[in-house]
Design a protein that fits this description.
The complex is a heterodimer. By secondary structure, chain A is an all-alpha fold. Helix content of chain A is 72%, strand content 3%. Chain A is globular and about 75 Å long. Chain B is mostly helical. In chain B, 38% of the residues are buried. Classes of the chains: A mainly alpha, B mainly alpha.
């Protein structure tokens, strides 16, 4: 981040801090401090009535992984698949809107956003309606014998991954659109003048320039998708439960705070490592759009 | 001849420099448009379901299968008082959270956009980190704080959480709008003798209002729809999303669809009016 270049240029010592202090204080108190307490709880002992005492109990972390490794792996797997599906569905739509939208651009973008004005949970319940055993999709798939006569969609991994894909799709489309919209179309014309065919012009010019959008979109999709538990609990079954279901259950149902905090912390750490790796691979370190 | 040889060279230098025939290109364009339309339809599929099933007369307690058309649900949209109370509760939280978060986040964005100071990049990191942290981690870490501090969970803790995740969104949105803002206008105003507060009210505020309004609406939408963080810090309080989930375990009345359709209608209207006003403003400014 080039702070000096981006800033308005005025030098200030106390004025900016005075303006920022409420927000900085709030984020420190209710984001940074809680993460410290999460770590502290994760290292605590718990007695049989649920009281916790701090004890440097590192064992909680390894226990979190060994007990719930299938949920961990399933979460990242579902999150990754949903992200890939979002790219496959979202990129072409963003491309059509940005490059061919013309004066309909803003209206088309509005259409992308409108469905998400309804509540997240109600949308997911609507998917439950669509995927019912006697619903339209199941009967279609049964008729074409893609699933057996008693095959179903609800309570399968496909339903959960489909739900995740749907709910986080706009977070993929919008950043990709922003990066595509910035591309100077003369570059594509130049590539064509130099006898590049349309596909190669796309691959060598448009695609690399839109990668920051794909990167931002992937983060905005993968992080919430792998941490989600709403889709898994409404569309899935106990066999599709994700790490979010475990954290929620351990915090709010079985009340084992150290275990729940340890799982949550391990999850955060893995996400952080994956994000950094991904940033290395794509060669971009911009986190913000 | 020169163009032909140039073409030959270009084709030879990179492997497989082949130009597809016109019909193939047209087919490609066509398929791309079809794909984009299918994705748009996919985005709207559950919305059609929500609207259609608000006119359904379900057999039993679950509104999952189409039975027959009725207007009853629309005649009694507020029949389930639990849903209505939860909606009011969520609205109250969303208005306060969005207002506080917008004020704090906008001040922060102004500071970042306007001044050069040490620690700038750390503040930027502090804004981005909550957005890249999974919601279950945000919710559960706040819960451990509240448990350690013996804070009872309820209205205040929900508000604290919602303001926290909205501040980052506001700061980013407003900061993006302020890029390229001409701060010398403020100097001009002060040179003409206006005191700082008057300068802020008469010059700065009108110029940044659209960005702040957008940030407020975004915060409002995020707050009213949040479930994952809220469920950790709500205690026994019931917001609209929590009520919907709790209700869905025992029954799904079509009134849920009616309320959702109403919210959708209001939001689309607000958006349409906003973009119309924006277009008029743009036309006026030339």
């Amino acid at each position: 981040m080039a702070a000096g270049r981006e800033g308005g240029g005025k030098r200030g010592t106390w004025a900016p801090w005075a303006l920022m202090s409420p927000a900085v204080l709030w984020l420190t108190l209710f984001f940074l401090v809680p993460v410290y307490f999460l770590l502290r709880t994760a290292l605590s002992n718990v007695d049989f009535v649920g009281n916790t005492t701090f004890a440097w109990r590192w064992h909680n972390f390894s226990e979190a992984w060994t007990t719930y490794n299938s949920e961990f792996i399933r979460s990242f797997w579902y999150g990754a698949l949903a992200t890939l599906l979002c790219i496959a569905l979202g990129y072409p739509l963003a491309y059509v809107i940005a490059v061919r939208g013309g004066r309909w651009r803003n209206m088309l973008l509005g259409l992308v956003v409108v469905p998400f004005f309804t509540s997240y949970l109600i949308r997911t319940l609507a998917w439950k309606t669509l995927l019912q055993d006697r619903g339209p999709f199941v009967s279609l798939l049964r008729d074409v014998h893609l699933i057996g006569a008693n095959g179903r969609l609800l309570s399968t991994p496909a339903a959960v991954i489909g739900g995740l894909t749907y709910n986080f799709l706009p977070f993929m489309i919008l950043p990709i659109y922003v990066s595509l919209e910035k591309i100077d179309l003369n570059l594509v014309a130049a590539a064509k003048d130099l006898y590049s065919n349309p596909w190669r012009a796309f691959r060598k010019v448009v695609l690399p320039l839109s990668l920051p959008g794909v990167f931002a979109g992937s983060l905005l999709t993968f992080i919430p998708a792998s941490g989600d538990f709403v889709n898994a609990s409404l569309l899935g079954s106990p066999q599709t439960s994700m790490i979010g279901n475990v954290v929620q259950g351990n915090f709010l149902a079985t009340v084992n705070y150290p275990s729940a905090a340890a799982i949550s912390f391990v999850f955060m750490a893995i996400i952080l490592v994956l994000v950094l790796l991904y940033a290395r691979v794509l060669g971009t370190e911009e986190l913000s759009v | 001849m020169t163009t032909l040889s140039a073409r030959h060279e270009a084709g030879g230098a990179v492997t497989g420099g082949f130009t597809p025939p016109v019909w193939a290109r047209k087919l490609g364009t066509y398929l791309l448009n079809v794909w984009a339309s299918v994705v748009l339809l996919y985005l709207f599929a559950p919305i059609f379901v929500i609207i259609a099933f608000s006119f359904n007369k379900p057999k039993g307690r679950f509104n999952y299968l189409w039975q027959r058309f009725t207007l009853d649900n629309w005649r009694h949209p507020f029949r389930y008082s639990d849903l209505v109370h939860a909606m009011e509760y969520s609205l109250r939280i969303a208005v306060i959270a969005a207002a506080v978060a917008t004020a704090m986040g906008a001040l922060m964005a102004i500071a970042l956009a306007r001044y050069r100071f040490r620690g700038n990049s750390i503040v930027n990191l502090l804004i981005v980190l909550p957005l890249t942290t999974p919601e279950i981690v945000l919710g559960s870490s706040l819960l451990t704080l509240f448990i350690s501090a013996n804070t009872p969970r309820g209205f205040t803790t929900i508000l604290i959480a919602h303001i926290m995740f909205c501040v980052s969104f506001v700061a980013l949105t407003v900061k993006a709008r302020l890029r390229g803002f001409d701060w010398t206008l403020e100097d001009a105003s002060m040179d003409l003798g206006a005191p700082p507060w008057r300068t802020f009210r008469k010059v700065t505020l009108p110029l940044i209002t659209p960005g702040i309004l957008a940030a407020f609406l975004l915060s409002f939408a995020l707050s009213i729809d949040d479930y994952i963080i809220t469920v950790f810090v709500s205690g026994n309080s019931v917001t609209f999303p929590i009520q919907v989930i709790n209700q869905a375990k025992v029954s799904v009345p079509p009134q849920i669809n009616v309320l959702a359709t109403m919210v959708l209608g209001v939001s689309v209207t607000v958006m349409a009016i906003g973009s119309l006003l924006g277009a008029r403003r743009a036309a006026r400014l030339g």
